[in-house]
Write a sequence for this structure.
């Protein structure tokens, strides 16, 4: 599929040139507007933000804050995945329970999760756990619903094909249902990475003493727009990197699709 | 419309041992509204060892349901289904099913797909590779063992599915319009392939199709169904010489005669 013909490589190079050019143009416009059309107080400037990021990186603060945000998100993601998949499997095996639970699951799913924050802070404090649970509350439904949908979409003829050869339930689960579900699980993971970060940062905005969300909130309180934009930039990089990790895992687990 | 009584030609029972039979077998589904719906009504059917039987009939007459009952994938509602001398309650040993769709696993190569049947019939791992190579050779797929289903043609996919069926090594082949989705040319080639393989092993085949010419050209016996509710309307013993050349056999006047009779039996007399 990825045969390296010259024209394809050429297109890739051009694409990256285009992307870099777009980035540079946006930064230049930002820099140009800053301090001339719009007061630097409101939009800071790329140079100031880069300086701040550098300082934060050198002092170790960047890693200190980013690692907190990422850990909370990852732990919430992992917990949400495990619980979501297990409950999804259970509901698939117990259709009667699934039917009964459906309105409640959809009700919880529709609940604005931010409204749970006060409860989580009350229960879990302002440390790691409340953010993990916040991320979890966003992620768990995505995995639950995708697991159920993925199991429903397994080709019935393929199940019958295996049954006709007297395959055990475990064999069918291992050789057919799990591989059939992988795309659903990865699509859940892709959506969930962003959601877990939202949960993690949301938790930090509402009460924390570290993390990129806390840093942004802190900067805003001191009218430090440079710090605010630096925090946002760092968050964006973190989100992009996490998405890349999912992409790599996906290519590794499903190389042929 | 053809008169029932004249069409229901009774035939002498085959002398060979019975591979599978259905005794007063009915299938009743519950439709979405909750009402019982009889899709098969008291089917009596007996299949001899080494017999090639086709079932034709209009869509919805329950011919696929007959196959599902014989395969044990769907339990019978009333009556009995006996395969290999034993009444079945689930998929019995030695029965292979082939669908209209290839049902190959899309993430597995042709070889890996065939390997599944070998795993399931208990072929020792050491023998699988050789057996796969044999089957690929037999089906003209030698160069395509490492291809994914998405990267080969529909005809080749169905051929790979046939390879998987052969790998499983059943005594009874249940084939539900296996070539129904193929173009006329590929269909003919596949039919020829099937006959060649069948005449080498002489297993029993129940072949469901809506193509009357296909049924007559392949089979020893053709059953015509009607419905719903599905019933056997008539049956025809096809006394055409074997081995058959699928193109030559179609030129024979007897062949045309069988087809005409079945056509008019189904109700296409104008």
């Amino acid at each position: 599929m990825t045969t390296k013909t010259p024209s394809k490589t050429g297109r890739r190079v051009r694409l990256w040139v285009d992307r870099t050019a777009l980035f540079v143009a946006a930064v230049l416009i930002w820099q140009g507007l800053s301090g001339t059309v719009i007061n630097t107080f409101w939009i800071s400037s790329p140079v100031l933000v880069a300086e701040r990021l550098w300082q934060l990186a050198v002092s170790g603060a960047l890693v200190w804050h980013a690692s907190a945000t990422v850990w909370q998100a990852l732990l919430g993601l992992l917990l949400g995945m495990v619980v979501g998949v297990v409950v999804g499997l259970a509901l698939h095996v117990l259709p009667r329970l699934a039917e009964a639970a459906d309105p409640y699951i959809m009700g919880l799913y529709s609940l604005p999760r931010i409204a749970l924050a006060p409860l989580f802070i009350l229960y879990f404090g302002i440390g790691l756990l409340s953010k993990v649970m916040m991320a979890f509350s966003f992620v768990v439904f995505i995995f639950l619903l995708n697991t159920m949908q993925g199991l429903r979409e397994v080709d019935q003829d393929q199940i019958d094909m295996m049954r006709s050869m007297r395959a055990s339930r475990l064999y069918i689960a291992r050789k057919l249902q799990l591989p059939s579900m992988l795309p659903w699980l990865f699509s859940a993971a892709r959506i969930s990475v962003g959601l877990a970060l939202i949960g993690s940062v949301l938790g930090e905005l509402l009460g924390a003493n570290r993390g990129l969300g806390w840093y942004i909130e802190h900067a805003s309180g001191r009218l430090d727009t440079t710090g605010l934009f630096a925090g946002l930039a760092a968050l964006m990089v973190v989100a992009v990197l996490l998405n890349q990790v999912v992409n790599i895992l996906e290519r590794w687990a499903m190389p042929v699709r | 419309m053809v008169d029932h009584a004249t069409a229901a030609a009774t035939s002498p029972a085959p002398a060979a041992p019975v591979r599978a039979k259905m005794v007063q077998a009915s299938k009743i589904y519950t439709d979405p509204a909750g009402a019982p719906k009889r899709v098969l009504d008291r089917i009596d059917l007996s299949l001899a060892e080494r017999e090639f039987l086709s079932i034709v009939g209009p869509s919805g007459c329950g011919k696929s349901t007959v196959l599902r009952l014989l395969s044990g994938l769907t339990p019978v509602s009333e009556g009995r289904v006996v395969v290999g001398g034993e009444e079945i309650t689930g998929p019995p040993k030695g029965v292979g099913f082939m669908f209209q769709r290839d049902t190959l696993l899309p993430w597995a190569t042709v070889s890996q797909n065939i390997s599944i049947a070998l795993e399931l019939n208990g072929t020792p791992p050491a023998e699988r590779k050789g057996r796969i190579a044999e089957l690929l050779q037999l089906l003209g797929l030698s160069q395509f063992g490492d291809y994914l289903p998405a990267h080969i043609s529909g005809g080749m996919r169905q051929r790979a599915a046939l390879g998987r069926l052969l790998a499983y090594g059943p005594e009874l082949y249940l084939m539900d319009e296996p070539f129904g989705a193929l173009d006329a040319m590929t269909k003919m080639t596949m039919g020829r392939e099937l006959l060649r393989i069948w005449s080498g092993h002489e297993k029993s085949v129940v072949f469901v199709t809506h193509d009357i010419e296909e049924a007559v050209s392949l089979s020893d016996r053709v059953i015509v169904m009607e419905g719903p509710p599905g019933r056997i309307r008539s049956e025809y013993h096809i006394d055409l010489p074997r081995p058959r050349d699928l193109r030559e056999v179609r030129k024979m006047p007897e062949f045309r005669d069988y087809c005409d009779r079945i056509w008019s039996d189904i109700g296409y007399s104008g």
Summary: Residues 108-169 of chain B form one domain. The CA atoms of residues 136 and 142 of chain B lie 5 Å apart. Chain B touches chain A at residues 71-73, 91, 93, 95-97, 99, 101, 103, 105-107, 116-117, 120-121, 148, 168, 174 (CB under 8 Å). Confidence is low (pLDDT under 50) at residues 1-10 of chain B.
